Amino acid sequence: MKSRIFFILILILLILLSAFCGLKLVQYTYGRRVESILSADSQNVESNAESLSTGNNENKSFENHDNSSEDVLEEDRTVENMDESESKTDEPESKTLRITAVGDIMLGRGVGSRLEKEGKGYIYAFEKVADILKEGDIVFGNLEGPITDRTHSLTAISKENKVGKYVLKNKVAAFEAIKYAGFNLLSLANNHILDYYDKGLFDTFEILDQNGIAYSGAGRNLEEAREAAIVEKNGIKIGLLSYTDMAEVVYSGNPSISFIAGENKAGVAPRKIEYIREDIGKVRNNVDLLIISLHWGIEESFKVSPEQVEFAHELIDLGADVILGHHPHQFQGIEIYNGKPIMYSLGNFIFDQNDPENQEAFIVNLDYKDNELVGITAIPVRTVEKTQVVPLTDVDAEALLRREIELSTALNTRCVIEGGKLVFELK
Fold first, then answer.
1. Of 30, 157, 287, 314, whose CB has the highest number of CB atoms within 10 Å?
2. Nearest-angstrom CA–CA distance, 181 and 150
3. CATH superfamily, with its number, for domain 97-424
4. CB of 115 within 8 A of CB of 124?
């Protein structure tokens, strides 16, 4: 009985051993078959890839058997597209900038009294042109008088007192209009900024500083007055230096003063070529575009003197990119010299003077691309009833446009009327 059981166990063991060996044989055979198939496929891929590279497309069955070559080509196309995309991304974007420039800003005296009497508020003065101004990245103007509520001033000219001067200021309440219009760069170098002495000047500094409006041409001493204001917009640094012809005039008052700044005296920067040459040298390498503002010229006149032309050309040769002039109260001709614009006088932007020619001017736009001037346009405007600046239509502006064409032509600069504004040819 025991031998019989032992025999059965031996038989079961042999059956299990045979089954195990058979399974291993099957796995081995299957593995070899898979390797053979993969090897054949690899050879087919290489063969067909060579056929593709030599233009042989006879073996159509390969496309149905294996799509690996299509995958390779698709990957190549994807890499090429990525390379093109990266190439475009690597190209630096062009830097564009618009400088918008206007002339004298004076919201006091007759302008302010009318606005207050009519209850219109100071913002009314620029409501019709604010959108035009705000298209500029830099919005420049000449602030013709301090921003202050002080009452102690220089001696004002009157019927009884012929030895005084025209005394101007902008009330603090008027500043809301300047801010509303978007001005962010101002010249203070003129013959009215100290009409309320240095305290009025300091009031002006304070309100401009508090509101982030850059300025140049006046300071607590000569060094500050000659220092450039620098503003960065769209990755472009713009510098402004400002000077005036009227710095050394002595004005009557209690006390009588001149406006020129000194080592320990607040005031303005005088228009002296040795100062300007030195100041350009200091700032030129720190900015991309350099503007120089000059308070100069023949008052109440469209005439530009030969001395002014020579002086402006010298400043351009020294490294200035733009000359912005004011003081004559009338908009004079624009000259393009060596590709750089010279505005000898931007006239009045808003003022209370009576002469119709003192009530009309232009908003000038200077467009730059990668620091190169690519366009100059001038939009005609007029101050209406001494309270509001308005853009002019083609008919209303015709005489102003024609006169500016003549004035600029006399300075060897061409411009044409397009869409109711002037477009200047660049040299």
1. 287
2. 24
3. Metallo-dependent phosphatases (3.60.21.10)
4. yes
Per the CB < 8 A criterion, the answer to whether 238 and 287 are in contact is yes
Per-residue pLDDT reduced to its tens digit, 192-202: 999 999 999 99
| Measured distance CA(332)–CA(325) in Å, rounded | 9
Gap between the Cα atoms of 223 and 183, Å rounded: 24
Report the alpha-carbon distance of residue 425 to residue 147 in Å, rounded. Answer: 38
- Tally the C-alpha atoms within 13 A of residue 351's C-alpha that lie toward its C-beta: 28
Q: What angle do CA 201, 203, 206 make, to 5 degrees?
A: 110
Span 20-78, pLDDT tens digits: 555 555 455 545 554 554 444 444 434 444 443 444 444 333 344 444 444 444 555 45
Per-residue burial over 65-76, b = 16 or more CB atoms within 10 Å of its CB, e = otherwise: eeeebeeeeeee
292: left (phi over 0), alpha (psi -120 to 50) or beta: beta
Query: What residues contact residue 216 under an 8 Å CB cut-off, 6+ apart?
Result: 187, 188, 189, 225, 227, 228, 229, 240, 241, 242, 269, 293
- Bridge partners, residue 69, by sequence: none
Query: Structure tokens of 304?
Result: 């530009």
Q: What does the alpha-carbon distance between residue 172 and residue 192 come to, in Å, rounded to a whole number?
A: 16
Using alpha carbons only, give the angle 275, 332, 371 rounded to the nearest 5 degrees.
Answer: 60
Instruction: Give the residue extent of every domain in the chain.
Output: 1-32, 97-424
